[in-house]
Write a structure and sequence with these properties.
By secondary structure, the chain is mostly helical. It has 5 helices and no strands.
Length: 206
């Protein structure tokens, strides 16, 4: 082999070597871009998210998240296949380490390691406002209300004197004075009618 051939092989190696390194380094960058992440929640360049070492090697994908994206179609030196795998992992809310939080939530939102079941932010439980009903609770404001609904039982005001008296018809009952006047008017009518009847009886016949 001539010196010219040796130089050509060396130049070819210099050209191809960075391309191989770039292919392996694109995976952390692809995850950052696909899930809009500034920093991956592992040490180093982010390879430990999938690999046993940093930088990662092709044959040591043994982390739970790495096995997850591999199962969803991620292939070696193929960033587009990783993007498709990440889309599937997010849509299915995959949880690689078995904690209460999905991989996407851990990496993109909480900044925790999806390979460590002890590294997660506990989900926030939002309590509903007002009472949801219970057995005999006095108030519904703090969520312990009884059967009276959200605002608890409603008591009448202190000066409440009870319901109004029962009335019917189109008008209210007459006052005592008006009642006496009505009674006197009826009595006068009865007396006048009696006088007329007496006069009619004693009138002489013609």
């Amino acid at each position: 082999m001539t010196h010219r051939h040796v130089i050509r092989l060396l130049l070819l190696g210099v050209i191809l070597a960075p391309a191989t390194v770039r292919a392996s380094e694109t995976f952390p960058g692809t995850i950052k871009d696909a899930w809009q992440v500034l920093k991956l929640p592992v040490k180093g360049e982010g390879c430990l998210l999938c690999h046993a070492t940093d930088p990662g090697k092709k044959d040591n994908v043994n982390r739970p998240f790495g096995l997850t994206v591999k199962a969803h179609g991620a292939k070696k030196a193929d960033p587009s296949s990783l993007r498709r795998a990440l889309t599937s992992v997010r849509a299915m809310a995959v949880n690689s380490d078995g904690d209460p939080v999905s991989d996407y939530q851990e990496i993109a939102i909480d900044g925790t390691n999806p390979n460590d079941p002890k590294s997660f932010v506990p989900p926030t439980v939002v309590k509903p406002e007002g009472g949801a009903g219970g057995d005999g609770g006095a108030s519904g404001v703090d969520g312990t209300g009884g059967d009276m609904g959200v605002d608890g039982p409603h008591f009448p005001p202190a000066d409440f004197s009870g319901p109004p008296p029962f009335e019917h018809g189109c008008s209210l009952a007459a006052s005592p004075d008006e009642g006496w006047k009505s009674a006197l008017g009826v009595f006068a009518l009865v007396a006048a009618a009696a006088r007329i009847m007496r006069r009619a009886r004693i009138r002489p016949k013609r």
